[in-house]
Amino acid sequence: MAETRTAILTVDDDPEVSRAIARDLRRAYGKDYRIVRAESGDQGLEALRELKLRGDVVALLLADYRMPQMNGIEFLEQAMDLFPSARRVLLTAYADTSAAIDAINVVDLDHYLLKPWDPPEEKLYPVLDDLLSAWHAVDHRPVPDTKVVGRRWSARSSDVREFLGRNQVPYRWYQSEDPEGERLLAAGVRPGGSGRDLPGESSRSCRRTQPRERRTLAHACRRSRDLDG
C-alpha cells in the first residue's frame, strides 16, 4: 500500500488567488505535504470528506473569509467536525480583521493572515512553520478502523460481519445503497482505480489488507450476483 502524505487544504473563491496560494504552499511544503486546493466552502468540505474516507490526515486549513454562500469562518466550523486537530488559519483583508478576531472564539482559530502576504518568506512561511511544528508535536496516528459495505440481506456480507465479530474485530457497517456506503465504494473501487485505499471485492475474491494499517473492507460489488451469490 502506498504511503499517504499529510494534507494541507486551502479554500479561496477567487481562482487567481487560489492558484497563487497553492503555488506558494507547494514551493515550501510540496515535498512533504499534499497540497489540496478548493474554490468554495462546499468544494473544500467535499475534499475533506474524501480525505477522511481514504484514511488521510489534514494538518492545516487555510480559508479566505469573504466567500459567497459559505464564508471562511463557517467553512472552518464545519471542517472541525471532520479534522478537529487540523490547525486553522483565516485569510483576511485589513477591513475584516474584527471578524477574524471574533473567529478565534467561534472556531478556535490558530492565526489570521492579512492579504497580500508578500514576501511569503517573511509573512507566510514563518507562521505556517510554527503551526505545522505544533501539529506534529501531537500524535495523529489514526486508530485502526474496519468498514464493511454491502447489502443488508447479502449472505456474503453476513459472513464477513460474523467473521469479524467472532474474532472480536471492531467494525462499522454501511449499506451499499446509502450515501455513505456509496461514497466509500467510490473512494476505493472506482473503475480503473487500484483499490489500494479501500481494499475491496471486485468479483468473487477479496484482497487482503495489510496488518497494522487502516483497513476498509468493501464487501459490495458492482453486480448483485456477486453480492448475493
How is this structure best described in words?
There is one protein chain. This protein has 229 residues and is of the alpha/beta class. The chain folds into two domains: 130 residues, 3-Layer(aba) Sandwich (Rossmann fold), CATH 3.40.50.2300; 83 residues, no CATH class. Helix content is 40%, strand content 17%. It contains nine helices and eight strands. A five-stranded parallel beta sheet has the order 2-1-3-4-5, with helices on both faces. It has a three-stranded parallel beta sheet with strand order 7-6-8, sandwiched between helices. Helix 1 links the parallel strand 1 and strand 2. Helix 2 runs parallel beside helix 3. The C terminus is likely disordered.
The low-confidence runs, each spanning 5 or more residues with pLDDT under 50, are 189-229
Give the CATH level 1 class of the largest domain. Answer: Alpha Beta
N-to-C SSE string, H for helix and E for strand: EHEHEHEHEHHEHEHEH
* Portion of residues within helices: 40-55%
Count the strands?
A: 8
Provide the CATH topology of the largest domain: Rossmann fold
Please outline the major beta sheet: 5 strands, parallel
CATH architecture grouping of the largest domain:
3-Layer(aba) Sandwich
Overall mean pLDDT score?
76
